[in-house]
Write a structure and sequence with these properties.
This protein has helices at about 1-10, 25-30, 50-55, 65-80, 110-115, 135-140, 155, and strands at about 35-40, 60-65, 85-90, 100-105, 120-130, 160-170, 175-180. It is an alpha/beta fold. The protein has a single domain, classed as Rossmann fold (3-Layer(aba) Sandwich), CATH 3.40.50.150. β2 (about 60-65), α4 and β3 (about 85-90) form a beta-alpha-beta unit. α1 crosses α4 (about 65-80) and α3 (about 50-55) packs parallel to α4 (about 65-80).
C-alpha cells in the first residue's frame, strides 16, 4: 500500500546504518535455523535480520517496499563486510520465482502474502513468521487493528507447511505471535 511505503520511507529518511545488526530475538535464538543456503527476508525494513543472516553464511535476498530502508540495509551490509541482494517491491503485489532454504517475515502482517509463503520455501526449508497480535493493542491503542492477528489466527494463514513451533504472546514477547514451519 502506497501510504505505508511512504510512511516507512519517511521513517528511514536521514538515518545512518549502525555498525552491527540487531536481529529479531526469535530469529537469533531459534534452534530451527538452517546451517546456511538461500534466505528470503520479506518486509526487511532496514535489513537487520538480512545482514545478520548474511553474516552467518546465508545468501540473502531482502525485500521491502521502502527504498530508504533498502539503502540502510545495503549500508549496514557494507559495514559488516557482507553482501545482500536488495529488492524494492510492494509486498501487496509481490511474487518471486525460486525457492529458499529459509524465509523470514518479522513484524509485518499481509494475509494474502502469508497464504502464498509456502511457494517460497524449498523442500526441507524453514519459514519463520512473527507479527503483532491483539495483545499488542493493549500497549499501543493507536496501532491500526487491521495489522494485528486475532487469537490463534496465524497457523490458519499458512498453507502447505508443517508447524514445528507456534506461540501467542510468549513471555518476553507480549503482543506477538510467531510460527516456525518446515516444508
Amino acid at each position: 500500500m502506497k501510504e505505508d511505503i511512504d510512511r516507512w520511507n519517511a521513517k528511514f529518511a536521514g538515518r545512518e546504518a549502525g555498525d552491527t545488526p540487531s536481529p529479531d530475538a526469535l530469529l537469533a535464538t531459534t534452534p530451527h535455523l538452517p546451517g546456511g543456503g538461500l534466505a528470503l527476508d520479506l518486509a526487511s525494513g532496514s535489513g537487520q535480520n538480512a545482514v545478520w543472516l548474511a553474516m552467518r553464511g546465508f545468501d540473502v535476498t531482502a525485500v521491502d517496499g521502502s527504498l530508504n530502508g533498502m539503502r540502510l540495509a545495503l549500508s549496514l551490509a557494507r559495514r559488516c563486510g557482507v553482501a545482500i541482494r536488495p529488492v524494492v517491491a510492494d509486498l501487496d503485489a509481490f511474487e518471486m520465482a525460486g525457492s529458499f532454504d529459509l524465509v523470514v517475515v518479522m513484524n509485518y502482517l499481509n494475509r494474502p502474502l502469508y497464504r502464498r509463503l509456502h511457494r517460497f520455501v524449498s523442500p526441507g526449508g524453514i519459514l519463520i513468521v512473527k507479527t503483532f497480535n491483539r495483545d499488542f493493542l493493549d500497549s499501543h491503542p493507536r496501532f491500526n487493528p487491521a495489522y494485528v492477528l486475532d487469537d490463534g489466527e496465524l497457523p490458519g494463514l499458512i498453507d502447505g507447511l508443517t508447524v514445528i513451533e507456534h506461540a501467542e504472546s510468549p513471555p518476553g514477547d507480549a503482543g506477538r505471535s510467531h510460527l516456525v514451519c518446515r516444508r
